[in-house]
Write a structure and sequence with these properties.
Layout: E1 2-7, E2 16-21, E3 30-38, H1 42-49, E4 64-72, E5 84-88, E6 98-102, E7 106-108, H2 115-135, E8 143-147, H3 152-163, E9 167-172, H4 178-183, E10 188-191, H5 197-204, E11 212-215
Parallel strand pairs: 8-9, 8-11, 9-10
Antiparallel strand pairs: 1-2, 3-4, 3-6, 4-5, 5-7
Helix pairs in contact: 2-3
Length: 220
């Protein structure tokens, strides 16, 4: 038996129950992982509230973690017991001491990267990669507008776009987030609660606007 968070009904944080669960051994192509650090994401809240529907009830939330491989199923040759790996997305269930997942969902975590850092960045990094290289491919000379520039995805996106020599304009909600956005690569930061960001963007770009606007903010 291992301990895990279980959700029997949708609702607020009070529906999260810490209890013993039977996990079993990994089957063909799967590995069993003892979690070292677990990532928390807005999507977990959406499943808990019922905005997104879990495949079964009850369920264990969580889609991101770093852990140590403690057992491998038949046919698994890519991992061995003792390897430290990270995983994200499906299958859900990382809010637990241990988790079983397909071996091909795991990626190695080198000793130079703290498990807490790795567990906090993988899913957000995948989202950032989608925004920077797939939805619209940022290039040198582009002017990129990033909403929620000081947030988890926003901070990664600003760093990446800046590294590509794009001109990065970020919006934040408060003055306290301005320094963080600048540190993460914004050339210009707009406090959208205090300024008309459309007017400011026209001013910054001399009326030329931006190549792309990327929304990095979650909404309920």
């Amino acid at each position: 038996m291992v301990e895990a968070i279980r959700v029997y009904e949708h609702g607020g944080p009070e529906v999260l129950k810490w209890e013993d669960v039977a996990l079993g051994e990994p089957k063909e192509g799967k590995i069993r992982v003892k979690n070292k650090a677990i990532g928390l994401n807005f999507i977990d809240v959406y499943f808990r509230k019922g905005v997104y529907k879990a495949a079964t009830m009850p369920f264990t939330p969580g889609r991101e973690a770093v852990g140590e491989v403690i057992a491998v199923g038949p046919g698994v040759t890519s991992w061995k017991v003792g390897d430290v790996i990270a995983y994200a997305d499906d299958p859900m269930g990382s809010y637990a001491e241990e988790h079983i997942l397909p071996a091909d969902r795991a990626v190695p975590v080198p000793p130079s990267i703290d498990p807490i850092i790795a567990a906090s960045i993988l899913l957000k990094g995948m989202t950032t990669q989608l925004l920077v290289r797939c939805c619209f491919k940022d290039e040198s000379g582009h002017t990129v507008l990033v909403h929620a520039a000081a947030g988890g995805v926003g901070s990664l996106l600003c760093q990446w776009a800046n590294a590509l020599d794009a001109i990065v304009i970020g919006t934040v909600s408060t003055k306290g987030k301005v320094a963080q956005a600048k540190e993460d690569g914004c050339h210009h930061v707009i406090i959208y609660k205090e300024e008309n960001f459309v007017a400011r963007i026209n001013e910054i770009t001399s009326g030329n606007g931006v190549e792309v606007c990327k929304q990095c903010e979650e909404h309920n």
